[in-house]
User: Fold these one by one.
Assistant:
Number 1:
Amino acid sequence: ISPFGTGRADYLGLWAFANLGIPPILTIMGKGVCEAGPCFWLAEDVFVTGRGLAYNQSGLDQLIPMVARTSGLEESELTTLAINFPGNVYVNPITGQSHHPDMVLGSLDVNKVIVYAPGLDFGTWEWLRKRGYQIVEIDTDEQVCAAPANIMTLEPGRVIMPSEGPKAIAAVRKIGVEVIETPYSEFLRVGGGLHCSTMRLHRDKGPYSNDKPA
């Protein structure tokens, strides 16, 4: 989709191995398509990914077993929340829809999420609703200019958000989540947000899906 991105993963994998001592543990092979970077954890046992232009079933079939192994879970213990992305456009600048999960859904706390509802399929929405998540919805105007769901979760109840989404920030704070604002509109122009541009080499364990907020 982006000719400038071809081969970039191999170069970065080689750099991480040579400079940081971190070996590649998986390469998506054959006809698999799977961009792991935009995936994220909603809980220690809930991994968010998708199906669309950036993912196909062959790619997911290769990624998910490795994700389960590195998380210390059996594959049967890991819930894979795969968003079925709408449309055939990678990122729609008019509607704000995207084929990356971190552009339309973000984890705020153990039972709180921020979403751009037009970017989710009904099954994903129902999964969140039936499990009692508090849902902050993003308006289309802010999604287009700021992608407020593309956040960096520092810990449950504490996140970094782009300052260009004031309505979303106010709604997140209203449900008791601490927000650190940072200007980020320029980076979004080249196709990414806070989560997109942050490489997480290590993280502490967080809550599981059956944990209750304190």
Number 2:
Amino acid sequence: MLKEKLKNYNLILASGSPRRQDFFKELGLDFAIDIRPVEELFPEELEGTDITDHLARLKASVFSNLKAQDILVTSDTIVWFNGVALNKPEDRDEAHAMISALSGSTHEVITSVAFTTATAQTVINDTTKVTFKDLTEEEINYYIDNFKPYDKAGGYGIQEWFGYIAVTSIEGSYFNVMGMPLHKVYETLMLLADS
């Protein structure tokens, strides 16, 4: 249905995330992947959704030659905990520190998605609350050593072994935690296709 509506558009996903690419495939969409380097920096006064909105827009800003039928999709995900944005860990020590901090508590996973055309831009975001059990040192070390979660905001992937054993409750979109609020992405693309 959505694929048919988008048949006259060129959908471009600017993401190296295998999960986001799989989402678009699972939605049955025809799309191209175009990843361009951008330094993911944001003003330090920004908080929560303002950070991910800014970064999703920033990733779109390096595409200056969009054609009339192009729809560019860029996105960013952070873990928001105690007023601090947790991005992707740089190394093992940082991953360990992140997961240890999240142990036994609730955090928010925030994703923003920007839909950019030659003439306009729409930005959506979604927030999911995730609660972890109290994790043991053995569990944390096992996960980091075996799954090396350095490409994931907050240092974990909910769809992996860690999510199976650590998550005690989730409030909101599960897919948002994986990197894209699919229900909102679908609705937004439907609206763009109809406009």
Number 3:
Amino acid sequence: KFQKDHPERRPLIGMGAAIIFFISLIPIPAFTGTTSHPCGTPLVAILLVRRVTCALTGISLLLQAAFFAQGGCGTWGANLMALGFVGATCGWSVFWIARRMGLSILIAGCAGGLIGDIATYAFSGAVLATALSTAPHPQYDFGTYLAVIYAAYAPTQIPIAIGEMLITG
């Protein structure tokens, strides 16, 4: 429907899909021995719309799981919610609010990229903490898991969020 309503944006849809696919494949080592990565979804949501970004994210995540063993089919839903819904919605919303406040497109884009990236990983951390704290015989409670997860990823994710802020701006 979006392509029919906006045929001039077809190349932008292809570019948006490539941005999400390739940016989210960049593994950056995290402190804990795992990896983190930029999102790309705040930028694409600003350039297109949130529902298209969510669809492109879903397709990208399926291809990454199938051909690169990244993420996996078992975590596809959680990853889609984090990247495609939360990251895109928060990034677009912050951009939209900043523009309505009269901020420049550069500042609004920077704010959207930063908050969209942070929101993605805040949501992911909360989902992981919930899963760990509700498992049979959890070692810690939700708050402790959340604090540990955020502390482990902050040294990696904050510079990534700043990079995404600059790229989106």
